[in-house]
Write a structure and sequence with these properties.
CATH topology of chain A: Cytochrome C Oxidase, Chain A
Order of helices and strands of chain A: HHHHHHHHHHHHHHHHHH
Number of helices of chain A: 18
Shape of chain B: elongated
Organism (chain A): Halovenus rubra
Keywords (chain A): Electron transport, Heme, Iron, Membrane, Metal-binding, Respiratory chain, Transmembrane, Transmembrane helix, Transport
Distance between the termini of chain B: 55 Å
CATH architecture of chain A: Up-down Bundle
Subcellular location (chain A): Membrane
Distance between the termini of chain A: 66 Å
Strand content of chain A: under 5%
Family (chain A): Belongs to the heme-copper respiratory oxidase family.
Largest sheet of chain A: none
CATH superfamily of chain A: Cytochrome c oxidase-like, subunit I domain
Radius of gyration of chain A: 24 Å
Largest sheet of chain B: none
Domain Cytochrome oxidase subunit I profile (chain A): 19-518
Oligomer: heterodimer
């Protein structure tokens, strides 16, 4: 038994490469965030208003797609290899999916960066939510497709490892971490199908001139088919960290292994048929379908609340093993001096707050209060911007030694970094929520309009703008500290000894208590597909029957599709 | 297998000097002895906070305003 980097050098190399790609995207995206925050609050404006949307796209795509997904594939590769205790079945295949993800990233980045250069027509100022009618250069869509195919192959790679393990370990429960990876990837296959169809069949042919147009509502719906569950693609690895790493760092044991498995199965089943809750104000979708999406979304609170219980109970177990007592006093017996623990615990605290703002977003009536305002931006800076980003950064302090073979540079520096991030986000996100309630819109370079004033119930709008600016500066300071710290640790500037291997302690209630049906991935996937069909078939049929697959059609392919659509209607039109 | 909740930890694998499992554990608490009352307390507080916020958001922020232009 040794350090992962020495036991599995090839796999550790892929994990390091994925993390390095992730951190480059994090730094780039974070700096873009600072430019935006200072621009729209009016403090420092180094770009034109028109360039703001290029910056916003770079911010969104870098952080929401590249940083998060590169990190999680690296983390998942470690989780699978380490928990199954077997190398990749074919390391060339592992290198292939990583290479495809890098290629896709570069292809998507080139047109986005083209937006900064006036001399070229190439651009992709379409934001992270890249549905029509916004148009990007075809290379952007092609890059995204290649990137997503890379993630699909990564999933196949992990399923291959699991299958090979299963042949040798018949009758045994899948190790928890691999179980979590596999359920996450099954969810991701279902979720990413929406955006893959949108890109390959609609947006890319449209930008290549193969079809005359698209049906914007259809591409929006397909985007949100992916756009909501993608947040669970970011969150499920974080849940794995909270379930597996956090209790160990607290000095405790996971409260219940079967409960953790149930949570991941629930995410597989419930994540996808929820996307229409992003479209409550879209006029082309009936209220009934929106109500169904709201119901599904509220059901998703269940696995998150189960997680709140299990993770807190596991941490409390650690505190009590370390001598903690009382109803609240045990909180002081947690290892708050360790950056990995503190960062993840603060991230979880922020996620609890995000749970509330998420319930507001998901309510059909409440949503009208906050739709398209800065409230939404405040919400997802608590979820992906803190629960995910801060957990990823904090866990790196525990995780990095396993893949580099030497310890991190300084715990104290790590602690300062995670706390600064937390404070920065408290300022920025709180102010964003309150500004949103005052009605200030999101996705705009200049939120100030003649004759329009935004009234807040407490304080003034300019005070809140100052809080956003201050928060964003603190966040970038934290980010620079993180980047410097990772560089110092990665190249072992402190010349620290190699870490000794450590072990994740067994759960209080182990996998032997988990019912066998939880291992039936086919069953859960089939139920998930059934729910998706129930939720999406009728709305998509209604959207297409209203405006066609491609909107106004003027080309051969478009006319052909129009003909086929007509045929579809003729056949199914006889059914009342 | 180098780690995983599915396997019992052996003492010789917990030798990282800064590992709380090695230096800070006062007593091992098993499944049947553990009663997570602190978790219940925290979750009760959380529930009260979100219940209050929900009431505030609905009656003050939502009903207290006129029609919204989104």
């Amino acid at each position: 038994m040794g350090v992962f980097a020495h036991e599995y050098p090839n796999e550790a190399g892929i994990v390091r490469a994925a993390l390095a790609s992730s951190f480059v995207a994090l730094l780039l995206g974070g700096v873009m965030g600072l430019i935006q925050a200072l621009h729209r609050t009016g403090y420092v404006q180094v770009i034109d208003d028109s360039t703001y949307y290029t910056v916003l796209t770079l911010h969104g795509v870098s952080l929401a797609i590249l940083f998060s997904i590169f990190f999680l594939v690296g983390f998942f590769q470690w989780a699978v290899t380490d928990s199954l205790d077997r190398p990749s079945e074919d390391i060339r295949f592992t290198k292939l999916w990583y290479a495809l993800m890098v290629l896709g990233s570069i292809m998507a980045a080139v047109p986005i960066l083209g937006g900064f250069i006036d001399q070229t027509e190439i651009s992709a100022d379409v934001l992270f939510t890249f549905y029509a009618p916004l148009e990007a250069h075809p290379l952007f869509y092609a890059g995204l497709a290649v990137f997503i195919i890379g993630t699909w192959l990564a999933g196949i790679d992990w399923f291959r490892s699991w299958w090979a393990w299963k042949q040798k370990n018949r009758g045994e429960k899948t190790p928890l971490r691999t179980f979590m990876v596999l359920t996450t990837m099954l969810m991701w296959y279902l979720a990413s199908a929406g955006v893959a169809i949108a890109v390959i069949f609609f947006l890319l042919p449209w930008q290549l001139g193969l079809v005359g147009g698209v049906n914007p509502l259809l591409t929006r719906t397909l985007f949100w088919f992916f756009g909501h569950p993608v947040v669970y693609f970011w969150l499920m690895p974080v849940y794995m960290m909270w379930y597996v790493i956090l209790p160990k760092l607290a000095g405790g044991r996971l409260f219940s292994d079967p409960l953790a498995r149930i949570v991941f199965v629930l995410f597989l089943v419930l994540s996808v048929p929820t996307g229409i809750h992003h479209q409550y104000v879209d006029p082309g979708i009936s209220e009934g379908f929106k109500f169904l999406a709201m119901t599904n979304t509220m059901f998703l609170l269940l696995p998150s609340l189960l997680t709140a219980f299990t993770v807190v109970a596991s941490i409390e177990h650690g505190a009590r093993q370390r001598g903690g007592s009382g109803y609240f006093r045990w909180l002081t017996d947690l290892p708050w001096n360790r950056p990995a623990f503190t960062g993840m615990a603060l991230a979880a605290l922020m996620f609890a707050a995000a749970g509330f703002s998420g319930m507001v977003n998901a309510g059909m009536n409440f949503n009208y209060l906050v739709h398209n305002t800065l409230w939404i931006v405040g919400h997802f800076h608590l979820t992906v911007g803190t629960a995910v980003a801060l957990s990823f950064m904090a866990s790196t302090y525990w995780f990095l030694p396993k893949i580099t073979g030497h310890k991190v540079f300084s715990k104290r520096l790590g602690l300062v970094q995670v706390v600064v991030w937390f404070i920065g986000m408290v300022f920025m996100s709180n102010a964003m929520h309150r500004i949103g309630l005052a009605g200030e819109p999101r996705r705009t370079a200049d939120p100030f309009y003649d004759g329009v004033t935004f009234e807040t119930s407490l304080g003034t709008i300019s005070e809140l703008h100052a809080q956003i600016a201050l928060g964003s500066v603190l966040l970038v300071v934290s980010l620079l500290l993180f980047a410097a710290h990772i560089l110092l640790s990665w190249f072992n500037f402190a010349d620290k000894d190699a870490p000794t291997p450590d072990t994740i302690p067994p759960a209080l209630s182990g996998p032997e208590h988990a019912p066998a049906v939880l291992e039936n991935f086919r069953l859960w996937t089939a139920i998930a597909i059934g729910l998706i069909l129930l939720t999406y078939t009728l709305p998509i049929a209604a959207i297409v029957s209203g405006n066609g697959w491609f909107g106004p059609v003027t080309t051969f392919i478009g006319d052909t599709s129009s003909f086929l659509t007509g045929l579809f209607h003729a056949v199914f039109g006889v059914i009342p | 297998m180098s780690s995983g909740t599915e396997h019992e930890a052996s003492p010789d694998t917990l030798d990282e000097p800064d590992d709380v499992w090695e230096v800070d554990i006062e007593k091992q608490i098993g499944h049947d002895e553990y009663d997570p009352v602190g978790t219940l307390s925290l979750i009760t507080v959380y529930f009260l906070i979100i219940a209050f916020l929900w009431v505030f958001m609905y009656f003050v922020e939502f009903l207290g305003r006129g029609p919204t232009v989104v």
